[in-house]
Design a protein that fits this description.
The protein is an alpha+beta fold and 461 residues long. 38% of the residues lie in helices and 23% in strands.
């Protein structure tokens, strides 16, 4: 019998366990144990009912176009629980000089697919609008450039204002990341490929069209009626309770010939294979004995922390808030929150009709400073910023704060080369597979795929 240890009970580790359990049920001669250091299975997927509001502590949705998550939900019998974002009212604002300016329609990330809305927008100066017009005539590069930062790539195409007003705040809002550090190839590969093929991104997005399925454009985000935790709870239900070790932190891994010794607390267990589905810096510590070079490559993947602050307000605030999903704040604005989501507009099943639910995101490069602050100081920052941008001065009905210490992997310039070295080093260690958000995608669908691939890889060997 093949015995597998899975370390980490976030969505990546649970997906790996689910894939193994499916094989076991089909008759494969295997067994697995999943170790999770906390009492909660699901990692950063945590949904909480506060009063009549459903509050997401971590992720609020996943990208619909990445099908691994929707497919898994269907397989788990959650099809009737899937909800999509209210895209009819989809509008995101960028704070400019203290006012909210909508991102013009037809802008695909940074590349305009429609001219008029961008021309009319007050988000960009005429210099940037002229740069967009010139970009149309850029031809495909004759040689392949090496990896570069998102900031350098965007500046080459559309200039500094596009970077500062739109792309940097978008990346800060999604990754808690810094555009001058993040790798273009790892974070926005589609645009790198477009540049290679067409030169101009504006021509590229028009030629390649929108991602569609059977001619129908899907809503951008998908979630679950009962919150994102429904997904991980459903995964847990498929697993044998005897295979789950909550509150059990793995402290060391030791290769023993073709086997591995897993040490957790006073227990140790010899297994044939290990899937490490923890953050990369934990994987680095665990692999110190097995391979120092691999451990140092893993330790070099940086992580950022973030803080989510959810505040609910009464009907007066709800009436005052504009349509749309929320706002992003460029660094040039004198506010600290990076982004805010108007949750009651974005999804159904989140807040009663008479309540506004706003989720604010603090973090990015200054995250570690905010992590040191106490709750009152954080609440003060958020209330001051909401007052500045949305003129909200009433007391919230409730506030909840969630701190995520080093939970967001950062794909910095050179990430794909590091990943290639990690893959090569892993291949030298039989019975080892890695999964999680540090490698081939930070979003939930990518993490699901990484867990399932890790399980498949081990079963192939
Ligand atoms: C605030 C926030 C918002 C996000 N929003 C979105 C979003 O809207 N959409 C989206 O697609 N993605 C989003 N993401 C990203 C996505 O949610 C994560 O990348 C993904 O859930 C990570 O899953 P994971 O299982 O790899 O890691 P984690 O969820 O971090 O799980 C790792 C687990 O390993 C455990 N562990 C650590 N060390 C040990 C040890 N020694 N022994 C045993 N267990 C250990 C931890 O306790 C943890 O439970 C967000 C992330 C954050 C933090």
């Amino acid at each position: 019998m093949t015995r597998v240890a899975i370390i980490g009970g976030g969505v990546s580790g649970l997906s790996a366990a689910y894939a193994l359990e499916k094989q076991r049920i089909k008759g494969a001669d295997l067994d697995y144990v999943l170790y999770e250091s906390s009492s909660h299975l699901g990692g950063v997927l945590q949904s909480q009912l506060v009063g009549k509001c459903l509050v997401e502590a971590g992720p609020d949705s996943f990208l619909s176009e990445k099908f691994w998550a929707v497919d898994l939900c269907r397989e788990l019998g959650l099809e009737d629980q899937l909800i999509t974002s209210n895209d009819a009212g989809r509008k995101t604002y960028v704070v400019k000089d203290g006012r909210m300016v909508p991102i013009p329609n037809g802008l695909m990330f940074m590349a305009p697919t429609r001219i008029l809305p961008t021309l009319r927008s007050s988000l960009f100066s005429w210099t940037t609008k002229m740069a967009m017009a010139r970009e149309w005539f850029v031809s495909a590069p004759t040689s392949i450039t090496s990896d570069e930062s998102v900031a350098a790539f965007v500046e080459r195409h559309y200039g500094r204002e596009m970077l500062e007003q739109l792309v940097a705040p978008l990346l800060a809002g999604v990754y808690g990341g810094d555009a001058s550090q993040l790798s273009m190839r790892a974070v926005l590969p589609r645009f790198v490929e477009m540049e290679r093929k067409h030169g101009s991104l504006s021509r590229g997005v028009i030629r390649e069209g929108k991602p569609e399925s059977h001619g129908i454009t899907k809503p951008v985000f998908t979630s679950l009626k009962g919150g994102m935790q429904q997904l991980t709870d459903a995964l847990v239900k498929t697993l044998r309770p005897a295979s789950l070790r909550r509150n059990t932190s793995v402290q060391a891994l030791q290769p023993q010939g073709t086997k591995w010794l897993v040490s957790a607390g006073y227990e140790s267990d010899q297994v044939d294979a290990v899937i490490i589905a923890t953050p990369a810096y934990v994987a680095a510590k665990l692999l110190n004995i097995a391979d120092l070079e691999l451990a140092s490559e893993l330790a070099a993947i940086p992580y950022n922390s973030s803080i989510i602050v959810a505040m609910a307000f009464d009907r007066r605030v709800r009436a005052l808030l504009p349509q749309g999903f929320g706002f992003l704040a460029p660094k040039s604005e004198p506010i600290k929150i990076l982004a805010a989501t108007f949750v009651h507009n974005k999804f159904g099943f989140r807040a009663p009709e008479d309540t506004a639910l706003i989720r604010c995101f603090l973090g990015g490069t200054n995250a570690d400073d905010y992590m040191q602050l106490d709750d009152n100081a954080i609440i003060e920052i958020v209330r001051r910023d909401l007052h500045r941008v949305l003129a909200i001065s009433t007391d919230p009905l409730f506030t909840v704060i969630y701190r995520w210490n080093r939970a967001m992997a950062q794909y910095v310039v050179g990430h794909l080369d590091r990943l290639a070295r990690i893959v090569t080093l892993c291949q030298k260690l039989p019975g080892l597979a890695l999964a999680g958000n540090a490698y081939t995608g930070i979003g939930i669908p990518d993490c699901i795929r990484s867990g399932m691939n890790a399980a498949a890889e081990l079963l192939k060997k």
